Every structure is written in C-alpha cells, then in structure tokens.
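User: Hey, my collaborator sent me this sequence without any context and asked if I could get a structure. I don't really work with proteins. Can you help?
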Amino acid sequence: MTVTIRPAERRDTVAVADLIEEIERFYGSTEIQPLEERRSQVEEALFGSPPLASALLVEDEAGDLVGLAAYSFLWPAAGSSHSLFLKELYVRGTLRRQGVGARLMDELRTLAAARPGCSRVEWMTDHDNPGARAFYKSLGFAEFDGKIVYRVDTGTT
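Assistant: No problem. I've predicted the 3D structure and written it out in structure-token form, which is a compact way to encode the shape of the chain:
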C-alpha cells in the first residue's frame, strides 16, 4: 500500500479527532471525549495562535488518515539549542510492520535537522510497551535511562 506523509492542515481537524479516538482505544481507554470536544482541542492545539503542537499525518491511497506523529519543539535542550519532542507516534494496525513508522521517524529527523538550532529528537515510551521498544531498537535507537518522568493532572481535559 502506498501512503503519503504530510503536515496536518486545518481541513484534517475532524479526521485527526477521529484518529485520536482510535489512539485512545488502542491504549485501553474506555472514556472517550465527545467528538466535538476532541475536534475543538485538535483545532486549538494544531492551529491556535500560537499553535501548541505540530503533526505529520499518514494518508492512505483512499485519502483516509491512518497514522500520525505529533510533536513540539522544546527549549532549552543542549546549551541554548532546542529539540524536537515526539509526543505521539501512531500507525493503524493494518499498516504496522510495513515501514510507515520508520518513514515517520525519518521525516521527524529531517524536520529537526532542517531547523536551525535544533540539536536532537527526543521521545518516550512506556516500559510496559514491548512493541514500541522493539520498534525503536530495530531502527537502531538506544534506550536512554537518565530521566525520570513526573506527571500531575491539572483537573481539566
């Protein structure tokens, strides 16, 4: 199957909101936000002023969204440089193990390298996600265990 990888556009808002529901279900969530709420949050995150994030989308031959890489630039990284932080990488199950995830990672590395002052690409995965860990290892990426992640909920969604 041929796929296209491209930046998200405003016209993709509803399709991205649908894909986020799929991602939530993939991770085991049973409490899914209503579509309109998800749509509004996608619009604000990707197209607000200023945008909170960016996304590369994977589109199949039929024009359906079948994957995404959501990322932001963070500062500071090494010294006064910045980094591209990959928040979510997702490819629909029917396209996994066909090189789509690897293409997304290549695109992210290209984006980071083309941006002046961007010194690295960073991301996380859960310890109990052996599939993701094996995927990143297959691409030649070593696990970095120098950080501990903290998280606190704000009480809003």
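In plain terms: The two ends are 36 Å apart (CA to CA). You can pass these tokens on to your collaborator as they are.
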